[in-house]
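OP here, attaching both records as promised.
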Amino acid sequence: MKAVTRPSRNRGMICSHNRGSNRCGSGFLPRFVARVFAGVASHRGMIRSHDISARVRGSGSFRDACSRLFRVLLVTLQVASGSLYASVSVTDDDGATVTLSEPATRIVSFAPSLTENLFAIGAGAAVVGVSEYSDYPEQAKRLPRVSGYNRIDLEAVVTLKPDLVLAWSSGNPREQVNRLRELGIPVFMSEPRSLQDIATTLQRLGVLTGRQVQADAVALEYEADLAAWRAKYRDTVPIRVFFQIWDEPLMTVRDDHLISDVIHLCGGRTLFPDLFAVSASVDREAVIVRDPQVIMSHSVEGDQTPWREPWLKWTTVAAVKNRQFYVVPADLIARHSPRILEGVRTICDALDAARRVYGNGE
């Protein structure tokens, strides 16, 4: 086990803690400081080391000054080096505190968005296992697959010896995630619901990986771009939008879903803001009564599902009558990563096109 240097409650001294030992006491720090100063002084031919040791033992004020100086030096070194071996702690989206004895160096990610975020903050080298659809960036495609939407290969995960697992609260089997905790593996649960949540996720991952500076920079750039989009569409004419996430049964999302947050940013209004679940099935007749001006869906590359066809007979619906159907690549609208801004551009462009068709948007 690595030695961990940290402040002790014993008179504010600095102690070195190892397995089976606990080096801490009123004499350790002054002797250590004495050796440091003796080494420097002896190198310059100024004074012998035992002279300094004697002065330390015989002078309380000198000893205290050395102790204070050493503490300042230690804090400076910790700041400069990223607090090597210091514990790190964050609160995840389940409200649980996740604490690591030191920043993670072997991480398994159970969601494509979390994998993207790790690479975005420069922590890609620490990723040792990913989920089935983790395909961005290119390096992620070469990593071992250890989970899918509703399954986790526990044996494969344990074999990778992770010091941190990143899981998706609503997308991974809770029983299997809890089993990993029982095995002593720290788990960070992620469930972003808004565009702003992406920035806070990046920052917390930065803490857990020891890459706070890089993560903060990525988060700040993302927030600046997001603010520019919000400013552009703050006073735009609203458009009624139905976003279809599944065809049989017909399903959509309510207002506290990431997709709805993007639609709102672009000046759209969703049709079912208060569904009983974040995503739920709805009657087609209920959609028709609400008369959407735009019907949208997402698609995976190569998916040729004819999702438009069931709508075409409803010619009184504004979106059908005006042929306002749009498709967004799934990985640009359903992943909670900085790439969501590409999805923002796609949806905003679609709603701008619809406004040109409808004139005033009504």
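Record two, same layout:
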Amino acid sequence: MVSAHTALPTSSLLDPRGRATLAGHFRNGSRAPVPMDDPRPFYSKFSSRLKGMAVDWVHNEVLLSADDPALLTYVGEGGTSELEPRWKKAGIDGVAIVVEGAGWKGANSIHVPPVTGKTLAADGKTPSVVRDRVLEFFREQASAEKRTVAPEVRPNRRTFVMRVEVELVAAAADTSMHYTTDGSEPTAASPAYKGPVPLTKTTTVKAIAIGADGRSSGVTTAVYIADAAHGPPTITEPKPLPRGKVGQVYSVDFAAEPAAGAVKPVRWLLQGQHRNAGGPNAPKEDKGFANYVGLSIDPETGRLHGTPKRAGAYVLQVQAYHFGAGLVADSRTCLLVIEPLTRTPSKTGFGKASPVVSSWAIYE
């Protein structure tokens, strides 16, 4: 799979106990809970790995690792990509295409260059334009001659209580996967993945995929933390979100099973990017979403409620955590469809219910 251009997000950080927290502010000034990835992807048996990604800007804390896709970014004449030392350190492929023109001279990062901007093809000689050079990059990365794509390690949530079963997901059917659980680097001689691997203590899982041609992928690393004192709750309801309608009161209750032995109450947060699939993006903050769409979540009861103000299809992420317990969260990514007051024939193809979806993609 290859990706259209995007912006690399700010990386997650680790607190002193090894739990991931977001580099941002929570309601009371503390860090926000994670993960941002849905712990239960809607299509859990399919890999969402990318082989190539075109990136149009970079945040300061972006971290790259050996299992990341090849990257393409844009610089001006005389500029040097801010990502280049990072992709070299990670051992992944990267290309910084030079966009010609006085307006870009010396630029180390260009945000949304014109698709007809002048540049050179991959051979460094033939005149081209940004659009064709990006497509050339994607075709090259999608070819069989490029390196094998690294496996994914599931579940995405990396803390557990008592026991967790770890699964590896390959991006291609003709690859074999090999793994270690002792922190060593996996090779073709490491145990072959045959099925879920049970863990009962904090463990570092490392995995590679080996293609039919014998070439190995980069190493995927996942640290699973056994933390009986700080396990997150598990969101149980609702499965799909019911549709709403502009101008009519909307209310739906999220529910969660507390973690074993938890003494702190469950708290709720509307977190992440709320993307209107039929129009502009809504703001990222919960308060901004309430102002833009007219809905908010009660942090104590988990009730998503309000009177919708704008029609559209919104991807939103709801998180549940035990207040004061390390802010390790369970998370559910949902698709919320708000219909106009007077319904017009839909052109989006969405079904009667709004399915839970993984990551930020909308599945029909």
